[in-house]
Amino acid sequence: MKTSIFLTLVFLSGLVMSAQICNPNIVNNWKNDRYEYNNNGTVTDTLTKLMWKRCPEGTRGIKCSKGRAPEVTWKRALRVAEKRKFAGYKDWRLPNIKELASLVKRSCYNPSINKRLFPNMPAGFFWASSPSFRDEQHKAFQLNFSNGVERERIRHDKTSKVLLVRLGQ
């Protein structure tokens, strides 16, 4: 009896810990009406006019729950973007750090992105195309959608996930 109650509490606490947490005192500029869901696996941000591939590379499905998002080097991420054909478009690219950061929902974490339009965003860092301005170690920027944190990493041997963008028309 005690064991089953304990296991139930552990399970329920895991559900609570994995839920998106938002601060109601911070203005939400990332409401659903800011985005257009295009019914082809893409989302257009009406503020920035950028079209995003809804699922990170390696994942697919309505809720982006099929497959897994592999981590690749920065150079490989650029090649993946260059060769990607999706939803009738072939001009996909790796976003720069400002574009990637434009998706960060600053009022929330776990994840810090619009969860309805970008479901199942995996934890971890995503590459930006932006090389570091302090490029003596050949670094590029990354962003973590779990908490909105940006960092610089060595781009030739470090790996990260990929989310693609294009200029929407």
UniProtKB/TrEMBL annotation:
Recorded superkingdom: Bacteria
Signal peptide positions are 1-18
Q: Does the keyword DNA repair apply?
A: no
What positions does the domain Lcl C-terminal occupy?
41-166
Keywords on this record? Signal
Q: Is the keyword Signal in the record? A: yes
Name any one Pfam family assigned in the record. Lcl_C
PANTHER family reported in the protein's UniProt record: LIPOPROTEIN
Instruction: Quote the protein name from its UniProt record.
Output: Lcl C-terminal domain-containing protein
Can you name the source organism?
A: Bathymodiolus thermophilus thioautotrophic gill symbiont
